[in-house]
Amino acid sequence: MERRNSWSIDEGGGAVLYGGFAKKVTAFFGTRAMDDEALFERLGIEADIFVKQTHSTEILAVDSHRSVSEWIEEGKKGYDGIVTDRPGWAVAIYTADCVPVLLYDGRKKVCAAVHAGWRGTAGEIVKKAVEVMREKYGSRPADIGAAIGPCIGSCCYQVDDAVYNSFRLYPWKGEVFREDGPRWRLNLKDTNRRQLMEAGLADEKISSSHLCTACRTDLFFSYRLEGSTGRMVSGIVMKG
Ligand SMILES: [Zn+2]
After folding, report:
1. Ligand 1 center–CA 159 separation, angstroms
2. Distance 75 CA to ligand 1 centre (A)
């Protein structure tokens, strides 16, 4: 179910905001109008944890045992998702076309940011993030909400057989791939939504932005359309 009224664009234009989690939670998806430092300042974010993204399915579980700078150091080993229960620490990932997914458990007060390109999506990285929330933080999937941010839509995302074949074991691959001549169109957003539901999230607790990064290069960077380009920061923070 789309909850479009929970989505807005920040007055400064630097981010698409999702307001559907909780009052004290800031969930943001950056635009090309503002760099990460400027956006953090605008949103009042004082500490942020980021990782070296490698299109893996590795999830960094951040807690109070280390400092922010120590977690950033750990993040250099290569991760594509970050989970935390620390209020005031934003967890952030960077994308340009790939799917940014933010998760929030209002009962246990745990949040996560996930980077899901086609490789991470084929590896079901969002399911792994939910698994880490369950195992390390005691979250129940039914308590977790998800916001799937602006990413490349199936309107603009043509892929080849190699990508199609990496999803061949998916029982519902016929729903997310559409034939397009000798190639395919892939709906990454819907694929991640289905995986979140398989992980136990309720349909009505998953909200997706309708914006396509390649259709809207006025707002977003698109790697597919622009080649070497910038990256946008997306993240989530629970204010103390
Ligand atoms: Zn598009």
Report:
1. 14
2. 32
pLDDT tens digits, residue range 109-147? 999 999 999 999 999 999 999 999 999 999 999 999 999
Q: For residue range 133-186, what is the model confidence (pLDDT) as tens digits? A: 999 999 999 999 999 999 999 999 999 999 999 999 999 999 999 999 999 999
Spell out the domain ranges in the chain. 4-238
Choices 1.10.101.10, 3.10.50.40, 3.30.1450.10, 3.60.140.10: CATH for 4-238: 3.60.140.10
What's at 108, amino acid-wise? K
Identify residue 74 by its one-letter amino acid code: E
Contact 115, 82 (CB under 8 A): no
> Collapsing DSSP states into helix, strand and coil, what is residue 65?
coil
**CA of 7 relative to ligand 1 center, distance in Å:** 19
Q: How far apart are alpha carbons 123 and 93 in whole angstroms?
A: 17
How many angstroms is it from 225 CA to the middle of ligand 1?
Answer: 10
CA of 23 to the centre of ligand 1 (A): 31
